[in-house]
Amino acid sequence: MSSKPTSTETGGERPVLTTRQGHPVRDNQALRSVGERGPATLENYQFIEKITHFDRERIPERVVHARGTGAHGYFEAYGTIGSEPASKYTCARVLNETGVQTPVFVRFSSVIGSKDSPETARDPRGFAVKLKTLDGNWDLVGNNLKIFFIRDAIKFPDMIHAFKPDPVTNRQEPWRFYDFVSNSPEALHMVTWVKSPWGIPANYREMEGSGVNTYKLVNDQGVAHLVKFHWQPKQGVRNLTAAQAAEIQAHDTGHATKDLYEAIERGDYPEWEFAVQVMSDDDHPELDFDPLDDTKRWPEDQFPLLPVGRMVLNRNPDNVFAETEQSAFGTGVLVDGIDFSDDKMLQGRTLSYSDTQRYRVGPNYLQLPVNAPQEGARARTNQRDGQMAYAVDDGGTNKHINYEPSSLGGLQEAPKPAREYRQWVEGHLGRYQTSRTLDDYRQAGERWRTFEEWERDELVKNLGDDLRQCPEVIALRMVWHFWHCDETYGRRVAEAAGIDLEKARALQPLPGKPAPKQHRAVPAYTDGTPEGTARQSEPATAK
């Protein structure tokens, strides 16, 4: 049985949340940004203090994504995005030039568990790709699912704390997970995915990948489009039920690592098609969700998956520690033609990911061969020294000069492009939460209706088992949420959890949250299958 909090732990006057400097935190839900959809600012002290401390909470393994495996391979561009030349959307050579095999290193992982946790865990899977292009590295760091639990990076430490083991019992307690989720309706969509069979991929070869965040593609005329990146496995998609995962875990805690390694060794190289969704770079008020919101999918009937290239993994690492464990990825590692959007998760991750690598591996982690750019794009900086520095950058014509500008040689700036992408930014600086929140319920309900019946049964069983271990106040709120996603969804979860549906329905909306409408709309995906992927029609165990 789980350890539930007692009334003495939950009652009484609650102390005020502060920063580590003792300043009261008056808004712990949103970064400071220029307007509701504008960029975040560097002076987000509360966020920077919070996220940099979070990055340093565990040593030496990764705070998240500790359990993982990796492989080498290559990427080839088709030179087109759908039926259009890729150059219409981007000046990135890696997406424009055909006939070039760009070296890649990919690390697959689970999120919450430690380095030796089982690969059958119900957990999103990390899907991180380092493309060593002719113009330097491009890291595309994402997950197997196309969405995430939260939409503002300031909530990431809270989310992971709630999902990680209880600091007192050292166990992952369901009530902690649902306590956070019940107060964060934006997470309902991701919960619906993760608690279904999609929460346990059969292996790494037969799962999708997604950049999750919204980026921008920029062409040589300085015109930008919003973009989502996706990896579609040519092997098809397979997932496991809880019972199938338990059966595998009974005799193998690393089945997915074994599966990938053995497939590559026997020459059965896994392959993914790289595809994008694009839309114009504006607010899109016609949509009932914000395109920058990572908790939402862009409907594929409106924004189809457009093929861009393919990726093949054909070589296992020679040494797991040197390559897989010391591989380091960051969402800020982009090439010309690919740019940041004002996605608040992306902006927060861009600081956090590289910061945690400097802490975990060291300030010179980019000197390691697995992380260094390819020889044709050799790094040349004026950065020197630091722990474990073993190479000195080529400083140009004068090795004495490690600064810029100089009249005596050294490095110089690259030529500026003929046309640069420039974003107009105007707004009041403050803390904003997205105002388009009705889709927090619509897309979750839509996903419920498009699952196959066996997937719904598995989802309801998993949620019911969890909610029976939660305090009633949390279980009632979760049923209230699910009922607003879909009447049948809420009713079936209530029955599985032993919850009085009428008592749950009588709850008032969360403080500060608008009253949601109950959604029973026509589903956007008629069979629950993402476009362009093969998929099992019934439960299947891993090979």
TrEMBL record:
MF annotations from Gene Ontology: catalase activity; heme binding; metal ion binding
Residues annotated for heme binding in this entry: Y353
Biased composition (Polar residues): 1-10, 534-543
Gene Ontology biological process terms in this record: hydrogen peroxide catabolic process; response to hydrogen peroxide
Domain Catalase core: 18-412
InterPro entries for the chain: Catalase, Catalase_AS, Catalase_clade1/3, Catalase_core, Catalase_immune_responsive, Catalase_sf
Pfam families tied to this protein: Catalase, Catalase-rel
Residue numbers spanned by region Disordered: 1-36, 507-543
E.C. number: 1.11.1.6
Active-site residues annotated for this sequence: H65, N143
GO cellular component: cytoplasm
Cofactor(s) needed by this chain: heme
Alphabetically ordered keywords of this record: Heme, Hydrogen peroxide, Iron, Metal-binding, Oxidoreductase, Peroxidase
Function: Decomposes hydrogen peroxide into water and oxygen; serves to protect cells from the toxic effects of hydrogen peroxide.
Family named by the database record: Belongs to the catalase family.
Protein name: Catalase
Species annotation: Pseudoduganella dura
